[in-house]
Design a protein that fits this description.
This protein has about 110 residues and is mainly alpha-helical. About 30% of the residues lie in helices and about 0% in strands. The protein contains two helices and no strands. The longest helix has 21 residues. It starts with about 50 loop residues before the first helix and ends in a 14-residue tail after the last helix.
Amino acid sequence: MNESVPESGVVPEAEAGVPAEDTPDVRDPAEPAYDPAGPAPLDVERVPTGSAEVDAQLDRLGDADHLATDGHLEVYEDVHRGLRDALTALDARPGPPAPPSYDRRS
């Protein structure tokens, strides 16, 4: 076994190049601190469907573009509810009258 590495396989911090705890963290002032990117729009093109109700719900998805990820769920649930209501309303709308049914047994 290599004599520079103890048998445990763990290299003491001082030998591993890790600064001791009492050493201050010195950063280059010219180097910016880590700053994750903020929310940004995906710029996904939305094509109108021709249904004002559905288009309004799809436009609502754009509200999530300006929110942090944890705010997306509320928008998605709201849009899902609106789309489901629009589909349900299609079933409730009166259509053309059904043709009369004839009893062929007579």
